[in-house]
Amino acid sequence: MMNLSTLLQKIKENPVMYIDKPSITCLRSFAWGYLSQLSNLGLTPEGDPMEGFNEWMQETEKINTTQSWVEIILFLSSSERDAFYSFFELFEKFIKQKTNSKMQKNEDILRLRQDLMFPRFDIYKEILGAIKKRPGMYLGASPITELDMRLRGYSLARREVGVAPTEPEREFEGFQSWVEDKYGINSGQSWSKIILFYSVDEHEALQKFFELFEEYLNKNKSLEIEENSG
Asked: Which of 23, 47, 51, 52 has its CA 20 to 30 A from that of 184?
């Protein structure tokens, strides 16, 4: 299993492989999904390398606000791409200062809490439940893209731990090809990009996603009923 520092380095070297493009917003959502799923699985990072980074950014840039490090870097950058690469430069300086001041403590150690069993990741609950009810609480200015990145982070964490996919997860895997068939697109673009292409903006795309996902689930149920009755 990769620690966060290793994962960030891999994303820096090949952002397209993990998050489609150099984007600090996509990076944040992907990392959030990855770390939150490890936490849900009972794997707690000790000596989190990101710990203190937000405060360090505020102090370094002399910004006395409650804005997150992502918002601060975006404010100081000309674009999402510029902010993406600025993050790695700033983060490297931050890590060096932590190391020099002996603040860093065993960042590569992961503690497995034996009292927790691997929970079943129910994509219906995660997507149609919490996020659908309160998208603003979980997602930012680019909700459809951030949702996609978050799910990718979830999936990577579970694959690395070796947790077998649940039935809802396996069912969601077919959503990509279903969206491609529905829109007649076979370009290798992700489902989020396809839906966004046919939407006015990110927020409409998120709403359309829920509608399409509901349609996709209903079609699958109809097919199951036909197969069982036949």
From this structure: 23
* Site of tokens 């979830």: 154
User: Tens of pLDDT along 98-126?
Assistant: 777 654 444 444 444 433 344 555 666 66
Instruction: Determine contact, residues 148/190, Cβ cutoff 8 Å.
Output: yes
- 69 phi, psi to nearest 5 deg: -60, -35
3-class DSSP assignment, residue 64: coil
**From the centroid of its chain, how far is CA 196?**
17
The secondary structure element, H or E, covering residue 43 is strand 43-45
> Residue written as tokens 């927020």?
203
Q: Please provide the DSSP assignment of 79-139 as one string.
A: SHHHHHHHHHHHHHHHHHHHHHTT----TT-EEE-TT-PPPP--HIIIIIIIIHH-HHHH-
